[in-house]
Amino acid sequence: MAPLSEFLIFTGIGALAQIVDGALGMAYGVTSAGMLLGLGMPPAMASASVHYAETFTCGASGLSHWWAGNVRRRLFLVLVIPGVIGAIIGATVLAHLSPIWMRYFLTPYLLVMGLFLVFRTARRKDLRTDVPRGTGVLGFVAGLLDAAGGGGWSALTVTTMVARGQEPRFVIGSVHLAKCIVSLAASITFLLSIGQSKLHVVLGLILGGVIAAPFGAWLVRRLPSRVCTLMAGLAVLALGIYNFYRLLG
């Protein structure tokens, strides 16, 4: 396949993944990394490529959410610092160890939390405005799993905080802005551990993600909270089923 054709394919992958991720607050890594793996890229290189791109795409998405009023400063700070520490450890683990064991933890978690979110929309509950206890620990675990397992930052953080009653659009916006810094930390670690990825892959993912980022922020601002919660629950269920399928395979 010609380099230009490959570049356009990766641009399309980046755009599709970013629209889903920007609107639902999750699934960029799973969508893009899954497609890269499907094209035959080794797992460590696929994860590194996605994190290189996410440094820019999540930056664009996070800024879009900030301009749209979807970011809470304190929530961002509580997530980003432990998330960076976890990402550095996770990227180091992936460079030296198979991440398959992490799927045994992530898969049942996603299935249970997805069902919880779907059924949660059937009852009304006042949304919280504070930052719940344990959010820093959540950021660390999410950063660790995201870098080591190729994805999971948004699935863990968004799912857990929305399930605890946080306003979905503020959770999504704050998580995306924090993800930019977490991805930068993971990218530097990958760069030092395994070296550079294919440039046209990273540039295609970046271009598609940057173009699509404002649409995700615009969409989440206009969807009702219960609709965002339901969509997030369905997305988490899909991720859990996908991981379960991979485990069986």
What is this structure, in a nutshell?
The chain has helices at residues 3-24, 28-38, 43-67, 73-96, 100-120, 135-149, 153-163, 168-194, 199-222, 225-248.
What does this structure look like?
Belongs to the 4-toluene sulfonate uptake permease (TSUP) (TC 2.A.102) family. This protein has helices at residues 3-24, 28-38, 43-67, 73-96, 100-120, 135-149, 153-163, 168-194, 199-222, 225-248. The protein has 249 residues and is mostly helical. It has one domain (3-248). α1 (3-24) runs antiparallel to α2 (28-38), α4 runs parallel beside α8 and α5 runs antiparallel to α10 (225-248). The longest helix is centred in the C-terminal third of the chain and has 27 residues, at 168-194. The radius of gyration is 16 Å and the shape is globular. The chain starts with a helix and ends with a helix. The mean pLDDT is 76.
Using the CA coordinates, give the radius of gyration. 16 Å
| Shape by Cα distribution | globular
Task: Please report the total strand number as a whole number.
Answer: 0
**Cα distance, first to last residue?**
29 Å
Q: Report the biggest beta sheet as strand number plus sense, adding barrel if it closes.
A: none
Arithmetic mean pLDDT = 76
Helix percentage: over 70%
Which stretches are low in confidence, meaning pLDDT under 50 for 5 or more residues running? none
Count of alpha/pi helices? 10
Q: What share of residues are in beta strands?
A: under 5%
Would you list the SSEs in sequence order as H and E?
Answer: HHHHHHHHHH
Number of domains: 1
Task: Give the structural class.
Answer: mainly alpha
